[in-house]
């Protein structure tokens, strides 16, 4: 995997397959990658079933948090979900935004868009729409969204800095986001870092937690808050596909940690003065 386009195409192909898999298969793997485990169940995803608006058909078990639970969505809000998959977070967001709100899901995998549109149509949701597009160039007009959510998606994107700048652009002044994602403390072994399967599995594409939070800050956001953080343990029967015995031991006894975080930040209200560079 040497270029951004190659990475994106590998992820697109993998998530086209994932769209046809069941939730149990996806939850027993890393974000739906084929490296399924027999050691544990539910490696990354959290339990959505108690949230209003939950629809099992839209839950592929691909998340690493519950961003909509923390997103402070109000009735009438326009919400954009980046990497919307089969529509799970969009339908949760719709329950909170209500009939007067609007939810836009964005995904770059045609199979996911098709599945999500079918789920929305089957439920008669006329204020939820799904758009095919790359979140490095979000197909939503500037200053549209009150709230942006995303669940375990930015780690799949090569240019994360571009995504945060796009989020800033799409949000209204005073709008905010709540994003769940995978980050690192310490360095992954090269065998994991460079493997396409583990990239599609939401691990190899993760960056350092400090770098991730700094990207948010330098993109112009304020009031940055960690809403939730949990450690992720990748089971041995997945790791041994990529690491020999010595590498596995070094990885498990080293300082590397893989974490799911849910982070909140706000786009400042534009006062019309004192902007950087003025």
Description:
The protein is built from 10 helices and 8 strands. The protein is an alpha/beta fold. It has a single domain, classed as Rossmann fold (3-Layer(aba) Sandwich). The relative contact order is 0.16.
Based on helices, strands and strand pairing, what is the structural class?
Answer: alpha/beta
Low-confidence stretches: 22-34, 36-42, 273-278
Helix content: 25-40%
Q: What CATH first level would be assigned?
A: Alpha Beta
Report the strand count. Answer: 8
Alpha-carbon distance between the two ends: 41 Å
CATH topology label: Rossmann fold
Q: Please identify which CATH superfamily we are dealing with.
A: Vaccinia Virus protein VP39
The number of helical segments is: 10
- Assembly classification: single chain
Number of domains: 1
What integer is the average pLDDT? 82
Biggest beta sheet attributes: 8 strands, mixed
Order of helices and strands: HHEHEHEEHEHHEHEHHE
In short:
This protein is of the alpha/beta class and 278 residues long. Helix content is 31%, strand content 22%.
Q: Features of this protein?
A:
alpha/beta, disordered C terminus, 8 strands, 31% helix, 278 residues, 10 helices
């Amino acid at each position: 995997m040497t270029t951004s386009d190659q990475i994106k195409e590998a992820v697109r192909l993998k998530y086209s397959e994932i769209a046809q898999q069941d939730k149990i298969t996806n939850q027993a793997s890393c974000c739906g990658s084929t490296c399924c485990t027999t050691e544990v169940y539910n490696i990354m995803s959290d339990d959505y079933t108690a949230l209003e608006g939950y629809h099992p058909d839209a839950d592929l078990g691909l998340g690493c948090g519950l961003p909509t639970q923390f997103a402070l969505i109000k009735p009438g809000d326009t919400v954009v979900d980046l990497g919307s998959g089969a529509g799970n977070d969009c339908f949760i967001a719709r329950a909170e935004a209500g009939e007067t709100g609007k939810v836009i899901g964005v995904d770059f995998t045609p199979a996911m868009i098709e599945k999500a549109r079918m789920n929305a149509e089957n439920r008669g949701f006329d204020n939820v729409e799904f758009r095919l597009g790359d979140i490095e160039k979000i197909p939503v007009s500037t200053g549209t969204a009150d709230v942006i959510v995303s669940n375990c998606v930015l780690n799949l994107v090569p240019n994360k800095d571009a995504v945060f700048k796009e989020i800033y652009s799409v949000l209204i002044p005073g709008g905010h986001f709540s994003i769940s994602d995978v980050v690192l403390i310490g360095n992954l072994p090269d065998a994991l870092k460079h493997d396409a399967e583990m990239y599609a599995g939401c691990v190899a594409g993760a960056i350092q937690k400090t770098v991730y939070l700094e990207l948010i800050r330098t993109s112009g956001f304020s009031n940055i808050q960690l809403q939730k953080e949990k450690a992720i343990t990748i089971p041995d029967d997945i790791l041994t596909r990529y690491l020999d015995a010595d590498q596995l031991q070094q990885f498990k006894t080293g300082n590397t940690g893989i974490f799911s975080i849910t982070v909140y930040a706000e786009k400042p209200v534009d006062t019309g003065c004192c902007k950087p560079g003025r």
